[in-house]
């Protein structure tokens, strides 16, 4: 495809990008993009960050006509070819924003030095596997496919494609763009949920009473290495029989890990919290008592009652969409999270992380609230979401001078 040609890729078509990148063009696009973003932000105060009509139009089947792709030859960088004057009105700022975003993406590689330098104050990976995400352009990130996935099978890509195709569920997830290949590795390209927020409060909440797949614990062989890990975490955890055998099964060890956090009892655990002016809190594995969870939530909310109400409204919307989705009736959603963000202007919450999403056996449906038993594929996602909403509703927000009372208890 010519560099001046129109980009017309399908969402799942692999794309290889050049290793050497024209940083000058990228930085120019970035500056233009930020100016337009600032103009749009002036008219978007107090809005919940969910897709609207303008975005639906952009996501339509002829989206490729909006975007041009740059091509770099060994000796020069070509500018986009001239095109006839459009018969339609001049694109509005939201269309121009997306045009510049895609151009910038084509001129960047994940975690390029220029990109990280320009965005170091606004982008960070709050939780998850280190190195799995990389900023790719204004408003986009690349996520590396899960280790161990078969080359022909990418559950996370499949989940995002299925949910993005649903007119209702696409508003509950990050925008999904495509799968691509770079440097011999495969990535999926997603919306950067942090983009557009200024110095936000961020909370990553892992959902479910079970965060491991059933086939991960199907082997009933007792293992010495897992016993040793358990003893290092809690010497009193093994039973007398397990101490005598000096071995535990994978299922026993994984359930022990769930019980050390709030996952087993509450159906969710807070993975990480970031508040303005402070480093992220990621050492929250032992936050499991209701008062500890409430204190952590209160710290995240500060004294912002308006943000609390907007977050609750958004989480109830996600729950309604989830409950009425045919996709979720036939899939177990293991290890997924809800990502919550707010700043002085906007509030957003999305479902993320579908690497462990699997379809259930034919003829079986899951309600995501029932207790898990081997073979029923329940994972407690909605059980946890019910309790997360209740916790946020009940959390006592700090009054001025009382912030110390909301410090989460992370003592060991």
From TrEMBL:
Gene3D superfamilies registered for this protein in UniProt: Inositol polyphosphate kinase
Region (Disordered): 71-92
CC annotations in GO: cytoplasm; nucleus
GO MF entries: inositol hexakisphosphate kinase activity
Biased composition (Low complexity): 73-85
Biological process according to GO: inositol phosphate biosynthetic process; phosphatidylinositol phosphate biosynthetic process
Protein name: Kinase
Sequence similarity: Belongs to the inositol phosphokinase (IPK) family.
């Amino acid at each position: 495809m010519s560099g001046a040609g129109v980009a017309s890729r399908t969402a799942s078509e692999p794309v290889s990008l050049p290793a050497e990148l024209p940083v000058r063009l990228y930085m120019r696009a970035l500056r233009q993009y930020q100016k337009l973003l600032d103009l749009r932000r002036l008219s978007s105060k107090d809005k919940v960050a969910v897709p609207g009509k303008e975005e639906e139009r952009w996501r339509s089947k002829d989206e490729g006509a909006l975007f041009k792709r740059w091509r770099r030859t060994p000796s020069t960088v070509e500018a986009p070819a001239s095109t006839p004057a459009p018969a339609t009105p001049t694109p509005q700022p939201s269309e121009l924003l997306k045009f510049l975003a895609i151009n910038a993406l084509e001129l960047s590689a994940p975690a390029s030095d220029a990109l990280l330098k320009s965005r170091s104050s606004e982008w960070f990976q709050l939780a998850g596997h280190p190195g799995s995400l990389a900023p790719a352009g204004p408003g986009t990130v690349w996520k590396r496919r899960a280790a161990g996935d078969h080359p022909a099978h990418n559950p996370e890509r499949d989940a995002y494609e299925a949910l993005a195709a649903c007119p209702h569920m696409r508003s509950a997830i990050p925008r999904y763009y495509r799968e691509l290949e770079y440097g011999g590795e495969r990535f999926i390209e997603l919306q950067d949920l942090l983009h557009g927020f200024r110095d936000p409060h961020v909370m990553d909440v892992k959902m479910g009473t079970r965060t491991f797949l059933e086939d991960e614990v199907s082997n009933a062989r007792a293992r010495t290495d897992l016993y040793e890990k358990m003893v290092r975490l809690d010497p009193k955890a093994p039973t007398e029989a397990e101490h005598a055998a000096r071995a535990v099964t994978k299922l026993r060890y994984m359930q022990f890990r769930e019980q050390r956090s709030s996952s087993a009892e509450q159906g969710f655990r807070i993975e990480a919290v970031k508040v303005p002016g402070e480093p992220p809190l990621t050492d929250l594995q032992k936050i499991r008592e209701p008062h500890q969870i409430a204190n952590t939530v209160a710290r995240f909310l500060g004294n912002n009652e308006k943000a609390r109400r907007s977050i609750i409204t958004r989480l109830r919307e996600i729950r309604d969409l989830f409950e009425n989705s045919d996709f979720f009736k036939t899939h177990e959603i293991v290890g997924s999270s809800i990502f919550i963000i707010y700043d002085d202007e906007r509030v957003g919450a999305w479902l993320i992380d579908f690497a462990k999403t699997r379809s259930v056996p034919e003829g079986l449906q899951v309600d995501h609230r029932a207790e898990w038993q081997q073979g029923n594929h329940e994972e407690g996602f909605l059980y946890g979401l019910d309790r997360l909403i209740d916790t946020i509703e009940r959390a006592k927000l700090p009054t001025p001078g009382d912030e110390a009372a909301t410090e989460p208890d992370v003592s060991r």
